[in-house]
Amino acid sequence: MIRKPAAKSTATRASCSDRHRLYQYAVQDVESEIDFVEQTWAELRHRPAVFLREDFCGTAQTACEWVGRSVDHRAVGVDSDPSVLDWGRVHNLSILTADQRIRTELLNMDVLQAHPGQADIILAMNFSYYLFLHRDDLRAYFRNALLGLVSDGILFLDAYGGYEAPMVLTEPRECQDDNGNDFTYVWDQASFNPIDSCMHCHIHFEFPDNSRMEKAFSYYWRLWTLPEIREILIEVGFSQVDIYWEGTDEAKNEGNGIYTPSDSGDADPGWVCYIVAQV
Ligand SMILES: C[S@@+](CC[C@H](N)C(=O)[O-])C[C@H]1O[C@@H](n2cnc3c(N)ncnc32)[C@H](O)[C@@H]1O
Fold first, then answer.
1. Residue-range domain boundaries for the chain
2. What is the pLDDT of residues 85-134, one digit of tens each?
């Protein structure tokens, strides 16, 4: 019998890869994020935090990290996209223990409408609140967060900026998944309008087989400044708002991953900081 040659596979790394999995590898560092949250909470409060709400939770990886750290911890994740929550249920909640899963709830809601009980901590990470383009909407979100916190609760945000932040540019970064497969994360600042400070940004993924996942994620958001964010947080009633700025590793001339409360920062091309808003 003559054997037919095997059909040549047309599958590429891009076509076989899962965009949410790649995002988790390339963008998220939930261990460091929760380390910062726990350490800062311990410095500011003399009781353990129990209930954490993760706004804009996406795949809820951070909520899962929280419930995994203590049998007392519980978490609620809020996201308006049911498909990303489903992905989180299948891939992140499924690897929790049964007890951890019972302590983790996912809500498919707009963060402006969500009232899932009063949390010790609310997180809004990876600049998701930049999706509010107008001051009134950002104020409404911060007000809802304040109402969603206990009387000594804390809202943790991150923010980014620097003189390259409003530029049109692409920034590739080499990454690797848990199986040692290389890929490139490409952050694409596709447009910036100085009149309203709004910009189109995309995330693409590229692979060593020259395939590319184009616009795996796209955002249209406003590049808010730290003084604007701080002023609005104070306006809605947070009593204290601190900027935690990253220290410098002098030998390497780069960030050292240690964030401390600061009143002034360097005029870097790109920076990321935490904002800690206390009720
Ligand atoms: C930039 S991703 C952030 C994902 C994750 N929190 C992280 O740290 O990487 C933004 C997420 O916010 C969700 N989102 C956007 N607007 C929202 C809203 N008004 N209410 C709830 N979720 C929203 C999107 O569905 C998306 O999953």
1. 19-161+224-278, 169-221
2. 999 999 999 999 999 999 999 999 999 999 999 999 999 999 999 999 99
Q: Which fold has domain 19-161+224-278?
A: Rossmann fold (3.40.50)
| Ligand 1 touching residue 58 (CB < 6 A) | yes
Indicate which residue's Cα is closest to atom 20 of ligand 1: 110
Relative to beta strand 51-55, strand 119-124 is parallel
Q: Please give the pLDDT value at position 10.
A: 81
Binding site membership of 78 for ligand 1 (Cβ less than 6 Å): yes
CA distance from start to end of the chain? 78
Q: How far apart are CA 2 and CA 133, in angstroms?
A: 65
pTM of the full structure: 0.95
Say which DSSP state 94 is in: G
Please compute, for residue 126, the number of CA atoms within 13 A of its CA located in the half-sphere on the CB side: 19
Cα 106 to chain centroid, rounded: 16
Would you say how long the chain is, in residues?
Answer: 279
Structure tokens at 187: 């952050």
Q: Is the dihedral of CA 11, 16, 22, 23 positive or negative?
A: positive
Ligand 1 atom with the shortest distance to the CA of 110: 20
Cα(8) to ligand 1 centroid in Å equals 39
